[in-house]
């Protein structure tokens, strides 16, 4: 266990000079979630190790199964905290001082549960098995997705400031209603994503008016925006346009505003040789596969900065994820584990 709570299980290989192969994902989740996101990849890694052990198979490389801390960012921001720290993309002091809504810090909570360690491990290449969290594989009846890259992601938090006032006695044309500005922003962000196209998505997952009372015009409204795109040029264009929209929606209603970019990850491309290997192993097993871009962010996008990496997807029934209805059939999970096992066997 390292300083940020990442958990590493190590199966030693016969050649210490060869850098280890890591299989990883996460075991945290969001509120009202399903049972497959993240944890499937960790359990898949453990299943690979169990299979090797059961068959007394020795490997030259050491094999590491990793559970990265706070991938979702549901309680503490930024998300991907564990892989950010592991790959040297974030300072440990900043991460440990991150606070939740109640003022508790990451460091305090890691100490409380006994998961603030001091261990370190090295990595030579990285594989991540995951549910797709989207509809394509299920809709097209394809059992395996070979992931070539991950969309870039940008997150903003913002606030609009107007005037709280009486809902009955304040004329419509004299209001400074912050909720209406945020609502307009949500619609304009949708239009922007559709206009840019090529897989662009924009989401306002949180809009919180204040004082949030039925008979008061909201004088303050906080919000979040999530924008994603795989093409680097379109990613930069989308970010610029989002910030212009935040300002223009405030100006239309003569509101004050504040916003900041709280997370940003550039689009990434996975190692072509590892992509080819995973694809070949799916074919070897008689499983049809499809190359694809991940719409969701994953720890692998940071690992690829320090070592060759690839992801393997299995279908999500109906494309559902981050909800209780999230589901993948047992035989589909087995397919993914078998592709992972064969790919690992080729690389270790």
Q: What is this entry, summarized?
A:
With 348 residues, the protein is α/β, with parallel strands linked by helices. The chain has 2 domains: 7-150 and 268-347, Aminopeptidase, CATH 3.40.630; 152-265, Alpha-Beta Plaits.
Structural class: alpha/beta
Q: What fold name stands as the CATH topology of the largest domain?
A: Aminopeptidase
Low confidence ranges? none
The SSE string, one letter per element, is EEHEHHHEHEEEHEEEEHEEHEHEH
On the 0-100 scale, what is the average pLDDT? 97
CATH structural architecture of the largest domain: 3-Layer(aba) Sandwich
Shape, principal axes of CA atoms: elongated
What level of helicity do the residues show?
A: 25-40%
- The count of DSSP E runs of length 2 or more, i.e. the number of strands, is 15
What's the CATH class label of the largest domain?
Alpha Beta
What's the CATH H-level homologous superfamily of the largest domain? Zn peptidases
Radius of gyration: 22 Å
Alpha plus pi helix count: 10
Number of domains: 2
Strand content: 15-25%
Describe, in plain words, how this protein is organized in 3D.
The longest helix has 20 residues, at 232-251. α1 links the parallel β2 and β3 (63-68). The chain has 348 residues and is α/β, with parallel strands linked by helices. α6 (178-196) runs antiparallel to α7 (232-251) and α8 crosses α10. The model has no long low-confidence stretch (mean pLDDT 97). The strands form 3 sheets. Strands 1, 2, 3, 4, 5, 13, 14 and 15 form an 8-stranded mixed sheet that branches. It starts with 6 loop residues before the first strand and ends with a helix. The chain folds into 2 domains: 7-150 and 268-347, Aminopeptidase (3-Layer(aba) Sandwich); 152-265, Alpha-Beta Plaits. The chain has helices spanning 39-54, 81-86, 92-96, 106-113, 136-140, 178-196, 232-251, 272-284, 300-303, 330-347; strands at residues 7-11, 21-26, 63-68, 125-131, 144-150, 152-161, 165-166, 201-203, 207-210, 216-217, 220-229, 256-265, 268-269, 289-294, 309-314.
